[in-house]
# Entry
Amino acid sequence: MSLPTQTYRITRADLVRYAEASGDHNPIHQDEAVARSVGLPGVIAHGMYTMALAARAVSAWFPDAEVVSLGCKFTNPVVVPAEGGVDIVVAGEAKPGDDGLTSVALTVTCAGQKVLGMPKAVVRG
Amino acid sequence: MPVDQTLIGRVFPPTRPYTVSEEKVRDFVAATGGTYEGGAAPATFPIVLAFDAMNAFLEAESIDLFRIVHGEQRFTYRRPVRPGDVLTATLSVASLRQIAGNDIIGTTSEITDESGDLVCATSATLVHRAGDQG
# Structure
């Protein structure tokens, strides 16, 4: 069953706020020069920020369900420009099992490119 | 400089107990564009604990945070995290390998509550990039 696609925007200001809330103050998420010094194309979103958006979509689709597991690889960096922002699109395909658990295979893209590798959630209820 | 090879299997000391408050959950939800309406914390909230444990690990091993890129993260939940929980994370190094001059560090953090019961286990793959000055 295909779930309704969710779109979320990430701005540099969000990354600053997320750094505070999560405790992840890695400067590659704030500082262009530091990001480039380690070979990145620019300031990138925290992988966990994108994963949080994937989780947000799961809770929008299954508001009362308990998440049993959640995982992904961070395959492509989400570059966040200094002005404006970028849109993250989260699509999902749900497969209910016999055990009361539903597997949700996610597809998370930015500008048409997949940014997470095999993102998947399992929910109960 | 490559990371110390004897790290595999090492268990680091538990992090200081962290009290989950409604305010912290609200800030976390707001930072990712949502509105907290009470109840369980978002599924990725335990990264706060795991990150605390990772910072202590990087500091102990003199690894620069800015050279770390996140490769993979997996969570398995025994129960949701809720405001009022007092949580501790214990990190261990599960694997270590080198690919193209980068260290690939596999860690596992077990997040337990005040009574020592497991709340969530999370595994992370950290890529330590040598960069230009490597």
In short: The two ends of chain A are 16 Å apart (CA to CA). Chain A is about 25% helix and 40% strand.
